[in-house]
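chain below, 123 aa
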Amino acid sequence: QLQLVESGGGLVQAGGSLRLSCAASTRTFNSYAMAWFRQAPGKEREFVAAISWSGGSTYYADSVKGRFTTSRVNAKNTIYLQMNSLKPEDTAVYYCAAELVGSTWPPPSYDYWGQGTQVTVSS
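prediction:
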């Protein structure tokens, strides 16, 4: 029912910034809560940030609070992850995910996933 495509990854020096985008193919984008996850080398996939269907609510992992900001533009079927003050430990493949809005926030799980985009932070 939904396809997600991330973009914007690349190589950046520590302290720099990147903005990731995730475009969704759906007629009902505002029916989905969205999220960002990442998987670093040798580590399990971890939650990064979530954003509600309207963009009015966000939730961040402690490791990125104050540095990362997620937003959405429903008219463009797109969410963004603005990453500032990047650290080498932010190096990972970043994935976007989607879940149909239910009765709970944040969603306990996500049914739809993108292919990922590589972010590499050099020191």
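DSSP finds no helices and eleven strands in the chain. The first strand starts at residue 3 and ends at 7.
thats it, cya
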